[in-house]
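Appendix B, record 7
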Amino acid sequence: MKSGTNRLKGRDLKKKVSELLREMDFSSSLDQLASFPGKLVINPLLSFLLDHDELVKWRAITAIGVVVSELAKHDIEAARVIMRRLMWSLNDESGGIGWGAPEAMGEIMAQCHRLALEYNSILISYLDEEGNFLEYEPLQKGLIWGIARVSTIYPELFQSASRYLPKYLTSGDPSIRGLSALALAALGTADRKDLLQNPARDDTEFQT
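Structure tokens (predicted):
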């Protein structure tokens, strides 16, 4: 598989990745994507974070997590470069918006403990109005999804997120409210149902 993949380049590789992301049996496709050389397949996968098909986008996020976690096992610096690329896409100076970047970061960290140790504080900083705050609500939704995702795996690394999440419980976007409750519950802060029914409680109740 790897030798065949090495012969694929440019549009042919992107077409192959697109086909795999759209396969009905995504489990099998994910195994194939994981067998590709990470440095080769990551660019096409990142491009599908912008896909208008939500299913394709979310499958790309899952695949990015698998590919980067595998890459980190033998080339941690290459994995760090990908994390920095995702961070850069969220920077105003990048000229882009960073669609899918927080979700991809969260998925990568959920699958790679070493990267979670290194980048947890950065992901949390995007919640903080005095940090690298993300003002755009669609990005906030992706960010909180990413934090909820990795918090279900490594809650001990994301406890400080509970300082910032309660304010999102009063968001006008129901998805943000729900994801915030999910993240807080994953962190062991409170029951999700209770959080949604009582979103106006003082933030100090949730601080660690």
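Remarks on this record: The CA atoms of residues 141 and 176 lie 5 Å apart. The two ends are 48 Å apart (CA to CA).
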